[in-house]
Amino acid sequence: MNVGFVPNTKRIMSLSKPYKRTVRQFTKEAKKQGGLWHYIQHEDFAESPEHYVRAFLIILKDFKNLLDYVEPSDINLPTYSFRIHELLLRICIEIEANFVAILKENGYSKAGDWKMSDYKKVNVSHRLSYYEVKLPVWNGVQNIRRPFEAWENDSRLPWWNAYNKTKHNRHTEFERATFENLTNSICALITLLSAQFEDNDFAATDMGLSMGGGHQDGMESTIGGYFRVKYPDNWPEEEKYGFLWSTVKNGENPITTYSYE
Q1: Domain ranges, ordered by start, for the chain
Q2: Distance separating alpha carbons of residues 39 and 117, to the nearest angstrom
Q3: Which of 79, 164, 190, 201 could join 179 in a cystine, given CB atoms 3.0 to 4.6 angstroms apart?
Q4: pTM of the prediction?
Q5: pLDDT tens digits along 32-54
């Protein structure tokens, strides 16, 4: 007996609560609500987020000062120096601090020292490898970076490898402290911050309406207002945020944890 084709009418369920320190794409239905970013400012979303934002803003200030001496351009990507090396180390230490915060606050409980193989788990929960970051002032074609792109092919991050090499053996590996690795690392840091907090800087004043400054690049502003970022828009429907924060915030445990185990 030919019963014909029966369509699958099962509804794909999206996520009903946000994860700690995790920004994600919303479903079309959820996007109809206002103030999509309000959940980021809930007290249970992140522990002392302003601590990490402030550290980045200090790094950003020093990075912009460096640009007074190294012109942001393709031709200067191989440039290396003690100033670049110093900033590269500071940025990568801050990247590690953010990875630890994400894993720890979501309940990751592996014993012993955590390594990049542990931090790489965050790529699944945050889709870091799909983020694009734009350096707004640049001479050449290398102004848009995907600092975690290598993780798509299960490869090592070149800029992180350079950081480790120059940290443990600066004398022989000093030439790895290049402007290219530095700019990739700071783009990685802004990726991590954007993937946690969007452009919220947790200042004492209320967050106002952002007008975007007339940009037509399909990207959005970031913390500190210097870089621009393109968020992943390819989340599976069941992994998107589908909650109405106005309803969720009044319930029990409005922020949940992501299982990295």
Answers
A1: 49-205+215-234
A2: 29
A3: 79
A4: 0.92
A5: 888 889 999 999 999 999 999 99
